[in-house]
Amino acid sequence: MSSPKKIVLLGATGSIGENTLRVVAKHPDKLELLAIAGRRRWRDLARIAREFNVPHVAIYDEAVCAEARASGEFPAGTKLYCGLEGLIAVSVLGEAQLVVPAIVGTLSLKPTLAALEKGKDIALASKEILVLAGKFVMETASRSGSRMLPLDSEHNAIFQCLQGERKVDVDRLILTASGGPFRDFSREQMATVTKEMALKHPNWDMGPKITIDSSTMANKGLELIEARWLFDLPADRIDVTIHPQSIVHSMVQYVDGSILAQLCPPVMTFAIQHTLLYPERAAGVDATLDFSQLLNLEFRPPDEVQFPCLRLAREAALAGGIATGAFNAANEIAVEAFVADRIGYLDIPRVIERTLESISNHDPDNLDDLLAADAEARRIAGEKVAAGLTPITK
Ligand code: NAD
Ligand code: MG
Question: Where is the 1-deoxy-D-xylulose 5-phosphate reductoisomerase N-terminal domain positioned along the sequence (predicted)?
Fold first, then answer.
């Protein structure tokens, strides 16, 4: 029997992190945690390190990392690493075979690039890094021969539907979207949305940022851009359909008109396990669909007037250059401001739109150029927030 695959999990204390731990716990003969990383919750990291016998732990926050080191609560022999450098160090450990970036936002960009340079495979949850730097990430992967395994459920579905097919035969990708809690809201009702309302998703149990992004459909916009890079297709060949049940996770339409789909319940362990064990399959963690029960599947086109974030993401994807990174940066700033009660719900797309209008788009020459553009987009979005976008809708 071969030895278990050695995994590095960045973002072990989050929603994807927890589900990844459930998959690892189910398959101790096939999967082993070599390293975990988080931002601040060191007690949780210490518990995971004890439970899974993890030899390497990275903590982003330096002060918290020092506190964790002094605590004596990590198992003897566990090595602690601090800061972004620490996250990079665990991502390039000689023994590491697969790195799972599952940190919210773009912080895992550098650790992921470092892992790719060393030929590690990636099971990607952190879609934002492709939205910011898809060209550089995918080029680095193809240079080193690393595999980019899509962990996001829609992209994982597409990846499964592409197995054994020829890329030239692909006509379109069809991303499914739940439409979030406000899919049946009128424009007037949208203006009354509070953060408490936006933080409740009807189908999925996820971290707070992605839950709000799902309600505005900015998440589907990010996923459209993510798909553009993962599958190397232009954004005008990637469609979105609203599928309220979140059972069909996405589809691939071939040139002959046949459409392949992947189905399972809206639980992340299915996609996570597929990437961790790929190309093997084994019994799953959660129960699958039961066709002895009534199952209705609906599909309808999204309304881009109701969900301007989707339109803005598509426009950014078609524009290319630094526009997709600016879309992501402005969305992050706007969501933060909304959660802090500084702007209203309908201001989220306004901040994004006005930021995209203010940047000067260009093709970035290198990563530093791209990161400078990201910082500039964040600055502009912050200004739009501070200027009090009017009308502020509370
Ligand atoms: P979450 O908020 O539940 O967890 C975020 C994790 O990131 C935590 O472990 C936190 O410690 C870690 N983190 C944040 N900042 C960090 C830093 N500076 N350094 C180190 N670690 C840091 O988020 P989530 O819902 O698990 O989402 C994580 C990523 O996965 C996001 O990119 C999201 O878009 C993507 N994703 C999530 C889901 C889902 O079902 N939750 C589905 C698809 C994709
Ligand atoms: Mg998704």
Answer: 7-134
Give the CA-trace dihedral at 26, 30, 36, 41, to 10 degrees.
Answer: 10
CA distance 271 to 71: 36
Largest distance between two CA atoms of the chain: 64
Atom of ligand 1 nearest to the CA of 205: 40
**Neighbour count for residue 290 (Cβ, 10 Å):** 8
Tell me the two tokens of residue 335. Answer: 């969501």
**What is the ipTM, given to two decimal places?**
0.99
Structure tokens at 77: 């022999």
Q: Are 111 and 89 in contact (CB under 8 A)?
A: no
Structure tokens at 381: 């979005």
d(CA 313, CA 47): 39
What residues have CB less than 8 Å from 189, skipping those under 6 apart? 182
Average pLDDT of 161-175? Answer: 98
Instruction: Give the mutation target among 16, 211, 249 for probing the ligand 1 site: most ligand atoms within 8 A of CB.
Output: 16
Does residue 391 register a pLDDT over 60? no
Report in angstroms the alpha-carbon separations of 299 from 213, 224, 240.
Answer: 20, 18, 10
DSSP 182: T
The one-letter code for the residue type at 244 is P
Which amino acid residue places its CA nearest to atom 8 of ligand 1? Answer: 14
Closest ligand relative to 37 C-alpha: 1
Tens digit of pLDDT for each residue in 314-328? 999 999 999 999 999
CATH superfamily of 5-151: NAD(P)-binding Rossmann-like Domain (3.40.50.720)
d(CA 317, CA 131): 9
